[in-house]
Design goal:
The protein is of the alpha+beta class and about 450 residues long. It folds into 3 domains: about 190 residues, Reverse transcriptase/Diguanylate cyclase domain (Alpha-Beta Plaits); about 60 residues, DNA polymerase, domain 1 (Orthogonal Bundle), CATH 1.10.150; about 190 residues, DNA polymerase, Y-family, little finger domain (Dna Ligase, domain 1, 2-Layer Sandwich), CATH 3.30.1490. Helices cover about 40% and strands about 20% of the residues. The protein is globular and about 65 Å long. The protein starts with 9 loop residues before the first helix and ends with a strand.
């Protein structure tokens, strides 16, 4: 339970068996790292992290808190920044951000065991603080302030935190209430959750509820979490199936998952995927070039994992025709990341999946299947702006079933060749040995090999 002052009552916590979780976020992380390196202050100076070589339509990966106070939304595009705002542009350095993040994680490990921490993203983590409150003779707020202070002192980066009696409440406290707290710490238990979050809108600010779920809830007349609690459960289950259980629990501020559950979780099935947003509209044949590169990259990933698959999936996102404007249906939600148009654009994508006749990790076989699927679902008259591919039902390659007809020997030879190519890439760089197709004008493989997460390393 939480005392009226907002701190955790340790005695009652021990008695009722509730656990206390922290969710810590590094504020405007990429922008903060760039500010520290330049001797700037994220609270005072205007800075955006963006690759301006991609044009004024490029998305800002981060902006400083000072720019947010001017009403500029996070993840905006360069051209959306008002002309009268002067700012510094920092080229993304993803590898550097990952190194700083790892160092900050090392700082947390000076206070807590690895078993009690879960890295959620490059700038966010969960910590089970329960055993450490008595160890350090402090309450949860003091513990959060200690961790946040250590990060500020060593790295010059500000952090905010959410404190909750379960993982969900800690995350919601971070996302919803921490930003309104003077010390950057939000605190929620189930009672405070009902008081301060039940009626919060837009509902898409709540962890785990995206635009798709929000659309379906709105059709049921629900615009906030309290509305979910007032719906008959059979209505929610009819609309969302098994996922209704999560919606109902979260609407009441409940979450049964613990840190131990996270660390012991093993998925029943596994998959790999790759996606790419193209810098310009691509023709049907140019799209096949990108598809070939992506399938080869995915085959290398399978080889490194010593895995094979028997299912593929493909998503094609079309470019908006020049003579067509986006639908102007009402914008329902306005949140931290700006206005969200909740209407789906019709006929702007094509999707498909196939169960393969064999288990394989072979590039030649995988590309043959992907190419067949690509030709089957893609409209050749339209230009392409996005490609996503995936392989599923992964199993260790030693469990592959060989027959007289599936060419295991030939595939083994190809895998050996792929392994030799992979060794060269590991030793001399990803671009040391490339297929000729990657030297075509429309190819992106060589440039993407220099990037981390689609951005400059």
């Amino acid at each position: 339970m939480f005392a009226t002052g907002g701190s955790v009552n340790q005695k009652s916590t021990r008695q009722d068996g509730k656990r206390i979780y922290l969710c810590i976020d590094l504020k405007t992380f990429y922008a903060s790292v760039e500010c520290v390196d330049r001797g700037l202050d994220t609270l005072v100076d205007n800075l955006v992290v963006a690759d301006i070589t991609r044009g004024r339509g490029t998305i800002c990966l981060a902006i400083t808190a000072a720019m947010k106070r001017l009403g500029i939304r996070n993840r905006c595009r360069i051209f959306e920044i008002p002309a009268n705002v002067r700012y510094t542009v920092a080229q993304p350095r993803m590898r550097h951000y990952m190194e700083v993040s790892a160092q900050i994680y090392g700082t947390y490990l000076e206070y807590v065991s690895p078993e009690d921490i879960h890295v959620y993203s490059v700038d966010e983590c969960f910590i089970d603080a329960t055993p450490y409150l008595s160890l350090y003779s402090c309450d949860a707020r003091a513990f959060a302030l200690e961790l946040m202070g250590a990060v500020k002192k060593r790295f010059g980066i500000l952090a905010t935190a959410g404190i909750g009696t379960n993982l969900f409440l800690a995350k919601v406290a971070l996302d919803i209430t921490a930003k309104h707290a003077g010390d950057g710490i939000g605190i929620l238990d189930e009672e405070l959750f009902r008081q301060h979050v039940w009626n919060h809108r837009p509902i898409t600010d709540i962890w785990g509820i995206g635009p798709g779920i929000a659309r379906r809830l709105e059709r049921l007349g629900v615009l906030d979490l309290k509305g979910i609690t007032q719906l008959p459960e059979e209505v929610i289950y009819k609309e969302f199936g098994v996922n209704a259980e999560y919606l109902i629990d979260h609407a009441w501020g409940q979450e049964s998952c613990t840190m131990a559950d996270i660390h012991t979780y093993r998925p029943s099935t596994s998959s790999l995927s790759k996606g790419q947003v193209l810098c310009r509209p691509y023709s049907f044949e140019e799209g096949r070039t990108i598809l070939r590169e992506m399938v080869e990259s995915l085959s290398f990933d399978l080889l490194e994992k010593r895995a094979i698959c028997d299912r593929i999936s493909l998503y094609i996102g079309y470019a908006m025709p020049k003579n067509q404007t986006k639908a102007r249906s009402p914008t329902i939600f306005v949140g931290e990341h700006g206005a969200r148009n909740m209407a789906r654009e019709p006929n702007l994508c094509a999707t498909g999946s196939r169960k393969l006749p064999e288990q394989t990790g072979s590039f030649s076989l995988l590309f043959s299947h992907f190419d067949t699927l690509y030709r089957a679902i893609t409209d050749e008259e339209r230009t392409i702006k996005r490609l996503n591919i995936g392989v599923g039902n992964l199993i260790p390659e030693e469990l592959r079933t060989c027959t007289l007809f599936n060419g295991c020997e030939r595939e083994t030879e190809e895998r050996n060749l792929q392994g030799a190519i992979l060794d060269v890439k590991h030793r001399y760089g990803k671009n040391a040995l490339m297929r000729g197709v990657s030297y075509r004008k429309e190819a992106t493989g060589r440039e993407r090999n220099k990037q981390v997460g689609g951005h400059h390393a």
